[in-house]
Amino acid sequence: MPPASATEYTAFLSPSKKIECTISRTEASCANDKTYRTTPPASSDCGSGSSAVNVWKGGAGLVCIGNDFGARRTLGYGKTIRRGRYSCTSSTAAMTCRNRVTKHGFRLSRDGWRFF
Predict the structure, then answer these.
(1) CA-CA distance, 102 to 86, in Å (whole number)?
(2) Is the pTM of this model over 0.90?
(3) CA 17 to each of CA 9, 12, 14, 72, 100: distance values in angstroms, whole numbers, following the listed order
(4) Which of 20, 21, 64, 67 is deepest in the core (most CB within 10 A)?
C-alpha cells in the first residue's frame, strides 16, 4: 500500500450512516459496527484502531485502520463512485466495492461481509 501522502482518498457514508468508506486509485475500504469489533486474522492486534474490509490490487480482506475515515459525504442508494480501477456501489442491502480489473472485492452489510 502506498504512503497516505501519495494517495488521495475520498471518504463517504451510506445513506443510513451505518457504513463508512474510503476509495482511492489504489484501494477501497469500508467499515461498520461489525468490522470495528473484528481483528484481522493476519494481525493479533490493531493497537488502538479497529478493522475494515478492504480491496486492493492483490485481493480483498480485513485490514487494520485508525478510528474512523472522517466521512461526511453520502453516497446515495443506487449510486456508484469510481477512482482508478476501483468502484463502490451503494444499495439498500449493502455497500459493494471492487477492483474492476481483477474483479476482487467485498460486499458489506449490517449482517456481515463477503469477499469475492
Answers:
(1) 10
(2) no
(3) 18, 9, 5, 9, 25
(4) 21
